[in-house]
Design brief:
By secondary structure, the protein is an alpha+beta fold. The chain contains eight helices and 22 strands. The strands form six sheets. Strands 6, 8, 9, 10, 12 and 13 form a six-stranded mixed beta sheet that branches. A five-stranded antiparallel beta sheet has the order 20-21-19-18-22. The model is unreliable at 66-75 and 329-334 (pLDDT under 50).
Amino acid sequence: MRNTPISIVAAFYKGISRFSYNSIDVKTSIPITRDISFYLTYIDTWTSENVLSASDFVAWRSTLNVRTHRRLNDRLPKRSLLLGIEMPINKRTQNPLQLSRLQVFHSDVFSSKRSYYSEYPIAEISLRNDQNYEIPIAVSARTTDGLSSYQSPTIWAKPMQATRVPIYLYLPYEMKGLFTSETELEIFAEVDGRKRMLDKIPVVLHGPNNWDGSIVDLSNFVTPNDPVVQSNARLQYLDISSSSDSINNVVSAFQRLTAFVDSLGTKVNYINDPTTSLYVDQVQYPIETIKTTGGDCEDLVVYLASHLMAVGHHVSVADIRPQISKSDQGLTQDKLGHLFLIVDTNIKIEYLKQLELEEFQYISKLNNFGEQTIWLPIEATLLSKGFNEAWKAGIGQYYKYVISGENTSENPVNIHNF
């Protein structure tokens, strides 16, 4: 064990009989674990008498409380070397670690956020070491349904102090077909090969399509690198590029974007989702929307954003939903707010005149490379009606909630870059 000293004990025994019996013991103990030690003992025994009979020695020894390590013959001095292992037998050992605090950060675990839980802990425990030496510990956690787990590296708990240990969670990548389930997260600590449960906390493990309502976490459903999405997007984009007849590169780039959005809209339809809430919602991945050819607001936002990003366009999402807590009940569909996309045309703002856009038909915004470019607001739920209708509705919402200032503390506008 780290910082556990090797002990050396020396003892000298002086006989009080007429035989002047003397002995020196030197014992060295080397700890292997907290309770087990390897020892090496050297014993040197001698007497001032030249000859000592066995019967005299036995008679003398019976009158004294003297421990011998081996049968002595009638000749002294004698030297002995003892090797062995010391360990407790039937000893009830008190656990050196005590759980002093448990703090839970996330009792709802979303499969779509698997990378988040591997970097940010869902809980934290404090373990107090009541011993006067450092103790190596390993902390682990697992859900009772066996779907997720965590194993910490070896942690050295300092003596007489509390050590804080974060609890992460590793979720499997393949969780399709699984539904939301209530389970428990069991937390264990292992010391010297002995593992014991410290505590368990109830958690809700949400299926892969569940979304917690955070606009930042919606990006977990945006998959521009999915092979199916890339193939679908590039085939349509190449067909559009080959049919473009504009000589002006700026106008041609704008026309390709509008035609691409038109093409994507012919593949899907908007379907109202009556189960939508601000806390937990079902969101389809783009590959699922391609297969089902339809989806609600979030599904189409994710679908359109993934395809645009697959062909090199930066995308932002505008969130105009009210800020409420999980406990709020009774919200109707028309009060749940909305999301719409803002798409980078990849055309720099200095080429604006060539597009002949009116003042409120575009947004001047920095792209991911720090360039001031022209962006277009698009209402994803109107994709099936074509680019112009989706663009017109997007302009109206951007003007209403951002430019005219209808966003309030109860109904703010948050714009997030995917």
